[in-house]
Request: fold
Amino acid sequence: MDMKFFEELEAKIPHGEVRTRFAPSPTGYMHVGGIRTALYTWLIARKAGGKFILRIEDTDQERFVEGATDVIYSSLRDAGLTWDEGPDIGGPVAPYVQTERRGLYMPFAELLVEKGCAYRCFCEKTESEEDSGNFDRAEDPCRSLTKEESDRRAAAGEPYVIRQKIPHEGSTTFHDEIFGDISAPNADLDDQVLMKRDGLPTYNFANVIDDHLMGITHVVRGTEYLSSTPKYNLLYEGFGWEPPVYIHCSPVMRDAQHKLSKRHGDPTYDDLLAQGYLREAIINYIALLGWSPAGEREIFSLSELAEAFDLKGISKSPAIFDIVKLTYFNSEYIRALSPEKFLELARPYITKAVPDGMDCELIASLLQQRCEKLTDIPEQLTFLASLPDYGTELYVNKKSKTDEAVSLEMLNSVKPILEGIDVWTQENIHDKLIAYAEANEIKNAKLLWPLRIAISGQTVTPGGAFEIAYLLGKDETMKRIDKGVALLSAFLAERKE
Ligand code: GLU
Reply:
């Protein structure tokens, strides 16, 4: 055994700082549970002034998805979860992609064989039997092979996997920050595969080796790994290494029975962005899925989260993802944006919905307080692009004291006033109409309700008559008023008959 190999690796391990890692497998998307794990992992590091490390766990080559690592990078970057060490930026314990570390694992597996904590298994088994641990170690002939026999068969080129040798007796206990002390009888643990026939480690082995060699102090992951953790602890013990602090988080659920799942149509992080949710709102909401801050407050920026985050607030029970709650968070975030920022975010949605040249800034200012998601924007603006069909009953309104006849009168009155405006500004439209209402002792609402109906074809609009008329421009405004006059005239004529 080349002890220098181990010594050199040991010498590189950073000490004396909190080091956490997010260790996703490249699946091609970032699910909500994944981004939450990344977030908690990042928060622990940031709060402690430590390091957040990104490691790509790609040893399962059958599940390889082209471009999947880029999705991890882009989602984390987008969410603001910047890493201090990782595949793209390197670091003291590089490389940070497991397949690029492939040469590292076998010597450690052999060291375990040497120590009697693992053995070569020459039995032919399907990968799925191995993965599920569906294998009876009591009957496995390889567990009790002599060292000489095992060495001889390996040297003769017989293919083998390396399995962990779990003691038959006793039990293994570990501590989890969320679930407390957990004990498992060793008899219940399987002799899991550590090294596969393809020479690559399983996740179960690689995570231990990498967490140790990368100096990871806190491991955050899903509760689906709780049952394997006693086996990891036996590995740490076998090597004589200190295990990390474990933080197992309960899953994010769609409902009481089902985990959130992309396959069943639940949104990924990217889907939520595409659905018009702001990253800040998503992150804030996701932070609260399974973690409760000490006080009543719910709205936190990322840096405020880093200050407030405390492991004590992590819940044992699964959290249900509630899109309604997220939507509420989102509207709060949209409202709190500066007008400039909102304009920047809303502009692509606005320009898609309205004719070229319309005043985006004004439209954005009308929308900011009235949209829950950015994707709500286009449907609120369709009336600007074309006047929807509408019925004359919209003109009837108790509050403004208008009916069809009054509305026709009002439209006929505003027509010449608007015609007379040479410089089509919001201010001019406003001033001229208000002056007319005052001079003729007409209530503003009585004059403006019919105008707004005529130029929008709907009773609820972002902005009022002045803004809409201004946005439409003089020609289109006049055309729409004419259409209103025609509709109302036809309606009244028919009623007379
Ligand atoms: N690669 C594992 C996953 O994507 C990571 C589990 C862990 O953090 O240890 O689920």
